[in-house]
Amino acid sequence: MSAPEEPKPPRRPSPEEPRTARTREALEAGLWELLREHELAEISVSALCKVAGVHRTTFYGHHRNIFDFAASVYAGLVDRLGTVDLDQRGTGRTVAEIGELYVESIRQILQHTKDEQRVYRALFHTEAFLGVLVENLRMRFVLAMDVWQAHGVLPDLDPEATAGYLGGAYASWFEQWVISDDDDVEAWLGSLRNLLPVWWPREGFPPAPQPVPGRGSRAAGARSPEALEPGQP
Prior knowledge:
The protein is built from nine helices and no strands. By secondary structure, it is mainly alpha-helical. The radius of gyration is 22 Å and the shape is globular.
């Protein structure tokens, strides 16, 4: 969705960091192995720690439960897919090129979340995941606001408030995609043409899908209750 932040000055790593990274990698690998044969709700912390070779005390030092850990793992995956190859001002790119990069990142998220649908469906029923996802998306949109502002696209809006609004909206939009049986990535992506703010560039988006009579709207030819005369069926 937007560019990574500018690099910060390097700091001296803690001796514990390599061990923490290895522990995290082992737990992630263990989670994916268990998810091949089990639903997320069936996986216990004990089972995960046994497969990962990690002590339960270590696990609980960083996470409250299996859902909290899975939320951080999968929200991180979505965040990485939402990262595009831009600096904070979108230097060297046109508005159309930037728009296409953003669209491609959303396409990848849609495909990934549908491929892992059963896990994401479970995660959206937890307390932790939606909050982490909204915050990650908000930060991506904060960076996107910088890019659009540098290109003269962003109107006179509060960038932080706008990013918060879009982050929450996108998270709910992704949730509806995951819980639906729809698997048409291009049509779902095209629907954003009708949902995004009017100032957001539409370059790179597929055509918006045509409304289907009776689905999400009144059937063709149907009259609203207000249009009926008294006594009419």
